[in-house]
Amino acid sequence: MTTEALRERPAARILVVEDDREMCRFLSELLSEEGYEIELAHDGRSALQRYAEAPFDLVITDLMMPGMKGTELVRRLREIDPEAPALLITAFGSIESAVEAMRAGAFNYVTKPFRTEEILLQVSRAVEESSLRKEVRRLRKELHGRYGPTNIVGKSPSMKKVFEAVTQISDTPANVLITGESGTGKELVARAIHYQSSRSHGPLVPLNCAAIPETLLESELFGYVRGAFTDAKKDRKGLFHEAQGGSLFLDEIGEIPLPLQAKLLRVVEDKEVRPLGANRTEKVDVRVIAASNRELGELVSEGRFRQDLYYRLNVIRIELPPLRERSQDVPLFVEHFIQKYSDRSARKVTGISEEALAALIRYSWPGNVRELEHAIERAMLLGKEERIGTADLPPQLLAQSDKEVTLTEALSRRFTLKALEHEYIRKVLQARGGNKTETANILGMDRTTLYRKLEELKEKD
User: Fold this and answer.
1) What is the CATH number of the domain that holds 158?
2) pTM here?
3) Are 78 and 87 in contact (CB under 8 A)?
4) Domain with 111 in it: what CATH number?
5) Under a CB-based contact definition with an 8 Å cutoff, are residues 89 and 65 in contact?
6) What gap in Å lies between CA 221 and CA 264, rounded to an integer?
7) Overall number of domains in the chain
């Protein structure tokens, strides 16, 4: 990293631990000129106290010091912070001291006498690695928070059961099968399971089995070696290898063809993968989380899914209810999506009107949460008011909503069939702007019958 690049970033805090006062002064002045924030300690004990008070981006320590050697200091630092970055300086540049330093957990070591460029280069690399490790920890913490069970939207009893199941099974090694209609949030639950488990340090690799052509699916999952087929110019790792130490999320698992199901079963059972064209298998440590919007048990009965694979995947099962069965969750989703898309909207959206929210609650949501998200995103992009109104909602949603409210009102007000017929005629005539010909066509009656019924309405009024 260049000096200019270092100066553009916030100053890294470095603790220099050295019993030689002249060396301490030299390193302090050299590194301060490069933009680093330097603190000094002259023995291991005071260095540990300083680090415990506030961790540093790098600790530079002499190897041979009275009271506590530099290697011992690094080990003690690692007890405070498992990723404490350290760079050792030694006048004893032997293989033994190098091995001892690296075993203690040091980033690297530099021998005395050293050149200025050498120490600056090693410090720059160590600080950069420290920064990258911090960023990884930050992102990992963010993922834990974002995909934790408490951040899955829902307060209905059915979703509370899902939350409890995710928390209970996250740290088990068993495979998981998530079922539910399209758009119910199966991948979100899979991410919650992974990031709440001990495998969260490893990758979560998703694959939509329905989106990959059958001819490519095997090589995508298991990889291949050079020469396995015409276009195999070099070795390629499959997704099972990419998910090593983590989880593999197989969405739409029911779309995998039968011949490939047998090979998948072998991997799930034996934890071994044989890439296409390879002569031997390779061990993998992967947890499989599968999902399907189809009932795999029915596919088994139809002979379209292997029963033994089904049992291997269905060790733990989580069923996600459709949105129409948990309407009390709709307001929570609306609030969540308004916040999510607030930055993309040209206007400030403060909420949603009662009428619009009532329409959303009444709607049956065949596309589930995904359809609701698109409806809110559309409303925020196309609407003009601070609050989302019924005019901002998709037409098909309002059409169903209007139909349902009419029938609901009719039931609650104990309409007779004749009264309901009269009310519907009024609605259609009003919607067609008074055009009796169009109204008659919609109602499926001739104009004479319509005129007679309109006369009945006049007499009633």
Assistant:
1) 3.40.50.300
2) 0.60
3) no
4) 3.40.50.2300
5) no
6) 9
7) 4
